[in-house]
Design goal:
It is built from no helices and eleven strands. Strand 9 and strand 10 form a beta hairpin. The protein is globular, with a radius of gyration of 16 Å.
Length: about 170
């Protein structure tokens, strides 16, 4: 597992080096009643072993939303041509993109220390898929929830390669 006591996979991708990358969440307690659920990502070698070149042990757990009982998780993974890993963050109070270097550290030149957090049409939004086009622009699609309603709306946005919102989109 990524961390004890409970892990939740949400997405899996294979990078250009045939390494398996799994994203999801981990709970800080067994019953999810007293702790947060945090982002979790693990990378495995083509032979199925944890890749220790990624964050020293093959796995990373992090959170950046300070809300009590927040439910953050990695909802999608995209690989960039320079080897960096782009993660979509869901479940928090804001939508976020996280950029990690190939070694698992945050790419500090992206967003705020590797995290680009922004309100995405409502305070409760979940990105479902990210893609990078041939110009390096990041497309993000997901659900946007209207406060006080159970209805969801389709939401799409585009981020420039430098991590700023594409205002022309």
């Amino acid at each position: 597992g990524i961390a004890d006591p409970q892990d939740f996979p949400a997405t899996v991708k294979i990078d250009s080096n045939n390494r398996l990358v799994v994203g999801g969440a981990t709970s800080t307690d067994q019953f999810q009643s007293t702790g947060n659920i945090l982002h979790a990502i693990a990378r495995y070698t083509p032979m199925g072993q944890l890749d220790v070149s990624f964050n020293g042990d093959g796995k990373a757990v992090f959170g950046f939303d300070s809300s009590v009982f927040d439910r953050e998780y990695v909802s999608d993974i995209e690989f960039l041509t320079d080897g960096d890993i782009l993660l979509a963050s869901a479940g928090g109070s804001d939508t976020a993109l996280v950029r990690l270097n190939d070694n698992g550290s945050f790419e500090t030149q992206f967003g705020n220390g590797g995290v680009l957090s922004f309100s995405y049409r409502s305070p409760l939004a979940d990105p479902r898929d990210i893609r990078v086009d041939s110009l390096g622009r990041i497309l993000l699609v997901g659900d946007s929830y209207q406060p006080g309603s159970t209805a969801t709306n389709f939401a799409i946005g585009r981020i420039l390669a430098d991590g700023t919102p594409d205002k022309s989109f």
